[in-house]
Design a protein that fits this description.
heterotrimer; A alpha/beta (367); B mainly beta (150); C alpha/beta (357); B: 150 residues; mainly beta; Rieske Iron-sulfur Protein; 7-stranded mixed sheet; 1 helix; 45% strand; elongated; C: 357 residues; TIM Barrel; 8-stranded parallel sheet; 8 strands; 39% helix; globular
Chain lengths: 367, 150, 357
């Protein structure tokens, strides 16, 4: 059997700019976001904190393997502040260094998972204001996501409607670990609005949630948690398909972020197999599940999958379709992917262009 | 100082290059040096100097920015022992552990490694007599210098 | 598949070892002969009768192929439908019932013990081809170890069984005495599709549809395997094998790749993992072949299986009487012939050392 080899990178330098579909901007100080809150909520957060399903206030339940809650060790700005809190250093270390033409912000808004849903809505509004003020306004290469408090559908729609005139917002951001599976009808009004405005919804894996991270309870270690996170994206996909969301909203666009993608073909085969024998349980699902996958879903590439035999990645790309994948760095997290070296196998020029820019430019209407 | 040039390192002969003064790199610290276009991470491990290629073979991060650590081992879940303090570096991005002495990755020593360079400490007096390349350094006779062979 | 091809396919299965067949879950009347006076009284007065798992509902359509339905003796049906026409060498009985989900630690132990007695008496004694997984109460580790010791001398029990949607991740220390006893007696740990609903089957709670429960099982298998590796179960019990039963198969390579990748940086958290998780998985994990989440096209099927980088992981199964195939086409059409001998026999014989007798 062929001995697996970790090869040196094969890619030539990218001539055209890369689109980075997952950038995590940070607050310079713990109170920076509070300054975007109305006085009533600023006082509330000061006196009662913003509480969520994380059992720990402060440290993450599964501590990461590097400081700053899992940041690249070399990403602390020389002028101070946490990683990705300084626009100039982010320009230098990410946009310039990695030839990023567009970076899509995913703030991982605490508002979406706040127990206090009114506070959550206020936090989402604040974080959306902050994205423009601190990032997208001064830096045209950065684009924003409309963070929404998805458990409050009315507030979510109001927030989307209030941002729709600003085309620096290129997607809606929603966490995958929703209170009910994402396909449930209670979330459909959000999907209706998203389809109406042709805004993709980007769901980014999260560090905590309401339910255990495995069907058999909570993991003990970060090495387990890091893998389990992508399962939440599988649930989004299966639920949305099996609840018939894509029959109701055939043009809805879903981006699954930071879950990798090697599991996608297997899940497609599984859903198709089960649907063929159980389709009368779900008569509203009129097509093979994999057909919806091919039309309504995109996946960001980070953390890049690293098969033991590098060339097995070609099988995955072929089964998913190079038109479904969009490159991402996850800057400034430790599991960051450098666009020059993430892929361990050479890509055809057309595939490379699709994955590193064209798919995202088309989906997010970036040019 | 006189620099006897080998044909820019592209010939068969190895060149010896002065890259740092010994007192520039404290015990447990590292320095990034450039020799003939190569980026090399230079480490001081308890007074001994080691040099490995700076770029992590995984995705190209700078090993000189990694954390210098001990070796953590275990034969039994929950029971841990530490040894070889200061002899490993963890890549600043994905945390891969490299043995500073050999350049080998801890998890995959046979297939994953960075190039490891021969390093020596020479007195300024010896260096002035040559043949050594000093890309950057003015060598003072009374000081001691780290020399890498490339 | 043509009639001739189908006949050839069936013939090629002769002498195979079927690693997953299901008797109907025993009801109270089946278990009463094996319950003592106290537990008989409990089960009658307190209506402990139908023990079907909500997550694995035997009464529903996918769990019984229509032409296999019968009102008569289920063993005779199994012989007529499966054991005889496929000329199986062995078939391993897996009872995936509510026994796994009972809360009371003593009732669960009693039901497990009675179920094993019933399996021995009403199944194993009546057909020498049959083998069984023993049920043990994961709810009560001490009682589970007692049950293993009680059954150990009956070599027809070849495996210890649990369900993938358990109460705690399988690697947890609380379960280690069970694994110690199992490994000592050459009993692999069988983790079967199905759940106890102790925990929601997904990050976002319970699903609307049974099809979603099924789809989500692979998340359970992957995280259970990750738990066993991360907690160091294979360091403590190097002889222990794990069989993922009715799991789908192709969830395995993504786990191999990701856990190996992460281990290179996360090793400091779990330094007792001394080899890459993909190698640990190849050494310790086996997967039954039905159902298989895989492309229909033979070339693509072969490519997907090649990602495992092992010929030794697959164990033939029909998952009788669940509805996965028509006729007797128990392996997907175009399944690589080169793998057949290992998949049908050799891998099972080396995974289940007690099979040889």
């Amino acid at each position: 059997m062929e001995a697996p080899v970790i090869e040196r990178p094969q890619q030539a330098d990218q001539q055209l700019g890369v689109v980075d579909c997952d950038v995590h901007p940070a607050f310079s100080t713990p109170t920076e976001l509070a300054n975007y809150l109305p006085a009533r909520w600023k006082a509330h957060v000061r006196d009662y904190a913003a509480r969520s399903g994380n059992p720990l206030l402060g440290t993450l339940p599964y501590p990461r393997i590097s400081p700053g809650n899992g940041m690249r060790r070399d990403s602390w700005p020389p002028n101070g502040g946490p990683p990705a809190s300084d626009l100039d250093f982010l320009r230098e270390q990410l946009l310039e260094e990695c030839n990023i033409e567009f970076g899509i912000l995913q703030p991982l808004a605490a508002g979406s998972m706040a127990f206090n849903q009114e506070l959550g809505a206020a936090l989402c509004t604040a974080i959306n204001d902050w994205q423009i003020d601190k990032w997208a306004e001064p830096e045209p290469r950065l684009r924003a996501s409309i963070c929404i408090p998805q458990e409050d559908v009315k507030a979510s729609i109001a927030e989307i409607e209030s941002r729709i005139g600003d085309n620096r917002f290129v997607q809606i951001a929603m966490p995958p670990r929703t209170l009910e599976p994402a396909g449930r009808k209670r979330y459909w009004p959000i999907y209706e609005v998203a389809q109406h405005y042709d805004l993709p919804i980007g769901l980014h894996t999260g560090a905590f949630g309401y339910r255990p991270n495995t069907p058999a309870g909570w993991s003990s270690f970060y090495i387990e948690e890091h893998f389990a996170a992508s399962n939440s994206l599988q649930t989004v996909m299966a639920s949305m398909i099996m609840e018939g969301a894509f029959e109701a909203f055939p043009k809805l666009k879903i981006v699954l972020v930071e879950g990798g993608f090697s599991w996608v073909p297997s899940l497609g085969w599984r859903m198709d197999r089960e649907w063929k024998r159980m389709r009368d349980e779900v008569p509203h699902v009129k097509r093979l599940p994999s057909e919806y996958m091919r039309e309504n879903f995109w996946y960001t590439t980070q953390p890049i999958e690293e098969p033991e035999h590098n060339r097995h990645l070609y099988d995955i790309l072929r089964w998913i379709g190079a038109d479904r994948l969009m490159f991402s760095t996850d800057y400034p997290h430790w599991d960051f992917d450098d666009p020059r070296y993430a892929f361990k196998v050479p890509l055809e020029p057309a595939e490379k262009s699709a994955i590193f820019r064209d798919n995202a430019i088309s989906l997010f209407k970036l040019s | 100082m006189s620099a006897q040039t080998n044909p820019a390192g592209r010939g068969r002969q190895k060149g010896r290059h002065v890259v740092a003064r010994v007192d520039e790199i404290a015990d447990g610290a590292s320095k990034l040096v450039h020799v003939e276009g190569r980026a090399i991470a230079l480490f001081n491990v308890k007074g001994e100097f080691f040099a490995i290629a700076n770029r992590c073979p995984h995705e190209g991060a700078d090993l000189c920015k990694g954390k210098i650590v001990a070796l953590i081992e275990s034969d039994e879940p929950g029971v841990v022992r530490l040894s070889r303090h200061g002899e490993l570096v963890r890549c600043p991005w994905h945390g891969w552990e490299f043995d500073i002495r050999t350049g080998k990755s801890w998890c995959d020593p046979t297939r994953t490694r960075v190039k490891s360079y021969d390093v020596a400490v020479e007195s300024g007096a010896r260096l002035v007599e040559g043949p050594y390349e000093a890309e950057v350094y003015k060598v003072a006779v009374e000081d001691r210098y780290v020399v890498i062979e490339v | 598949m043509s009639v001739l091809e189908a006949a050839k396919a069936v013939a090629s299965l002769a002498g195979a070892i079927d690693c997953d067949v299901h008797p109907p879950s025993p009801r109270r009347d089946d278990l009463l002969p094996y319950l003592d006076e106290y537990w008989s009284e409990i089960s009658i007065s307190r209506e402990v009768d139908v023990l079907e798992l909500m997550s694995f509902p035997e009464r529903t359509k996918p769990y019984m192929r229509p032409d296999w339905k019968s009102t008569g003796d289920p063993l005779e049906a199994m012989q007529k439908n499966l054991l005889d026409p496929l000329d199986l060498r062995h078939a391993i009985l897996n009872v995936v019932s509510g026994a796994h989900a009972i809360f009371d630690p003593y009732l669960s132990a009693a039901i497990c013990r009675a179920t094993n007695d019933w399996l021995a008496d009403k199944w194993l004694d009546r057909d020498p081809r049959l083998r069984a997984s023993m049920l043990v109460p994961f709810q009560n580790a001490e009682a589970a170890v007692e049950e293993i010791e009680r059954r150990a001398d009956d070599k027809r029990f070849v495996q210890v069984l649990t369900v993938v949607g358990g109460e705690l991740p399988a690697g947890r220390r609380i379960y280690w005495p069970i694994y110690e006893a199992a490994a000592r007696h050459g009993l692999p740990l069988g983790i079967h599709a199905g759940g106890t609903y102790r925990n929601a089957p997904s990050h976002s709670g319970f699903h609307s549809f049974l099809i979603e429960d099924h789809i989500a099982h692979t998340q359970g298998f992957a995280t259970q395997m990750a738990s066993l590796i991360a907690e160091g179960v294979f360091v403590k019990f190097p002889e222990l094998k794990v069989v993922a039963i009715e799991s789908g198969v192709t969830w395995v390579p993504p786990l191999m790749w990701r856990m190996t990748k992460d281990w290179r940086g996360s090793r400091i958290e779990v330094p007792w993992i001394k080899e890459q998780p993909a190698d640990i998985i190849r050494k310790h994990l086996r997967v039954t072949t039905q159902p298989m989440d895989i492309p229909d096209e033979p070339d693509e099927m072969e490519k997907a299986l090649a990602h495992l980088l092992s010929d030794e992981m697959l164990l033939f199964s029909t998952d009788y009487p669940h509805w996965h195939f028509e006729g007797l086409e128990a392996l997907p059409a175009g399944f690589p012939e080169a793998l057949l001998e290992k998949v049908l026999r050799t891998n099972a014989l080396s995974t289940y050392p007690r099979l040889g007798g």
